[in-house]
Amino acid sequence: MNKIEVKLYSLNRSITSVLKITLVFLLLVSSLLSCGKKSEFFEGQIDYAVSVVNDPEGKYKTILPTKYSLFMQPNRVRFYVDGGIISSLFGGMIFDGANKRAYMLMKSSKLAYLLPQDEENALDREAQKVQSRVESFNDSVEIKGFWCKKFVVESVEDGKKMRNELWITERLKSQYPSNLTKYLPSLFHHSIEGMPLKVISFSETGREVHLDATEIVEGGISSSHFEVPDEFTKTDDDPTAMILMMKKMMN
Asked: Strand 195-202 to strand 131-143: parallel, antiparallel, or no bridges (unpaired)?
């Protein structure tokens, strides 16, 4: 490779990592789906600050967003990113369980990819190969006025170990769209209920990505958050192959 090709390859891998981390976070949230308890579901907004540990070259700090925002209604989730190079390329994701639709938004192409909703697709088949276990701890910490309990989810996928540390508050009960659970099932576990206010994702290289809740706003939000913005063109092109390729590149 020449120098330009090397730089483009490095940037592509960095962007791939950000998209994967975004999916990780979304499915960490989805893995906390309540299993039958009836309660008042959370509606509102949660903002998370993003920080990176053990990133000696500073590459991920430049690429990664500095902020994630989660907008929620019962059976609906919208995810935004802000800051970093990725925010100019990736427009977040919309999960609308009421209408059984989910979109991945790409600012770079102004395309809204309709994610597959059928029961049997490549992502589901990959999910069946993943082995996961969850462990709960007695540790607790107060985050933004909510007491949170520690959980650790460890998974093995394609021979690679993944570890995610979650700090969960049971006070915020949420109804998540079922289509959220398809995209990183290695983190799905029915024994966990509640909302993550802190997430630490560990890589095999020693890098850590931290997400810490900075603001929690409880209350009604506009349904317009869960609609594809006018500047995006909806496409039925299946992004499954792209998602699987990104996962393999980062393993």
From this structure: unpaired
3-250 CATH pick, 3.30.980.10, 2.40.30.200, 2.50.20.10, 3.30.70.3270:
2.50.20.10
- pLDDT tens, the chain, 251 aa long: 544 444 444 555 555 555 656 655 555 555 444 433 444 788 899 999 999 998 888 888 888 889 999 998 888 889 899 998 888 888 888 988 878 888 989 898 999 998 876 666 666 666 666 667 888 899 999 999 999 999 998 877 667 778 889 899 988 876 665 556 555 444 435 557 778 899 998 888 888 999 999 999 998 888 899 999 999 999 988 777 766 665 554 44
Beta pairing, strands 233-235 & 111-114? parallel
Torsion sign (Cα): 221, 21, 141, 172: positive
Contacts 24+ apart (CB under 8 A), 224-230: 225/71, 225/78, 226/71, 226/73, 226/76, 226/78, 226/94, 226/96, 227/94, 228/94, 228/103, 228/105, 228/112, 229/91, 229/105
Domain spans of the chain?
Answer: 3-250
Which pTM was predicted?
0.78
